[in-house]
Amino acid sequence: MKGKCNVEVVVVGAGLAGLTAAVVAALDGASVVLCDVRALGGRARSHTREGFILNQGPHALYRTGAGAGVLSRLGVDFSGSPPHRAAFGYTEAGSLAVLPTSAGSLLRSSVLGVFDKVRFARLLARVQRLEPASFAKMSAAEWVASLGLSSRGARVISALTRVATYAGDLDLVSGDAAVAQLQLALRGVLYLDGGWQSLVEGLRATATSSRVRVLECEQATELHARADGTFEVRTSARTLQAASVVVAGGSPAAARALLPRPPAWELGAPATAACLDLGLCRLPTTMVAFGLDQPLYLSTHSPKACLAPPGGAVVHVMRYGARISTDDRAQLWELARRCGIGDRDVVVQRFLHEMTVCHALPRPGSGLRGRPSIDATGTDGVFIAGDWVGSVGLLADASIASGEAAGRAASQRAKRQRALGSAMVGP
Fold this sequence. Notes:
The protein is an alpha/beta fold. The protein is about 30% helix and about 25% strand. The protein has 2 domains: about 5-45 and about 195-265 and about 370-425, FAD/NAD(P)-binding domain; about 50-195 and about 270-360, Polyamine Oxidase, Chain A, domain 2 (Alpha-Beta Complex). It has 11 helices and 19 strands. Helix 2 (about 65-75) packs across helix 11 (about 395-425).
């Protein structure tokens, strides 16, 4: 080993949660080391192929979500455009029909009958006034059933809820998370210019300017609490001695493996997805399609966002809830072809057969507030962050919000340790 390095805050993991925690702690005045940096940005990384920028599946930033607020406070700039308004419902039989996602499309849609159109219009009018926390005891599926819609109406609201939560099985996600996500979706989302890599680069630049020390390719292997209230984080190359530690290494299993004491967490099921990312030489005939009887989704992200060469398009086709790889790929290609995408249109393609979209969904019964808090580690001075941590947001919003809270808590704890050390030394 290269020897010990004294630092105030060590952040383990460099996804959105870890990057945010490191930047927040550094801006709060702490000296920060960021380790376990195997791929800066984690699942937010984008890849460029032949001029097409591909996110890892369809990514959208909620305009009024917690993530956008934190990024703005940190000075991380981003730009983008809202999705295409015209959306279609897709059935397993292969039919496409206008999907009622607004008052105008509701009138044109043939998916719903008159009775359901009236109920759906009332729901759209009042959904922003709902208090999400009041639905935490039920599942998203139970919330949909409580709306009194016909089977066709329930299929439409279920399709919208799947896209908002990324949950293929609505029995596994809490009703408060579903309602909160639908509210955010109705307020608007952005497809980001340059992909989500633009957020990673923005956070990287802020980390560099705030003097965060980044240890590339050094995996954290052990975390030990010392008798003096500080911690040792061992990597493959050195031992770091820190006043506070933020564990933001991705999954709950990765966090458990590193924490000094076994935590008592009650976690929900993970959410997975299979995704076909396409770079096309032309636009598809159908820009957006929601699966009505299957958990499917197709969205055209470019040219709304700057992600493709002139005349090209970036399209993501997703199945919520990954199954057998060959079956999912065939199903995604079938939807792509129904939306007017042929083999000759494809310049680049990538199939992600089993992405982890969310490591642990909020559980029905406890909801968002039932997720582990940032300090639910069993060890004072060690904090956690990730898409499964804290009571705020889902998906990237949860990662960024918990990263901000953990980074601030770690910095404040380091300040207290610093003050205590100064008092013990004395004049």
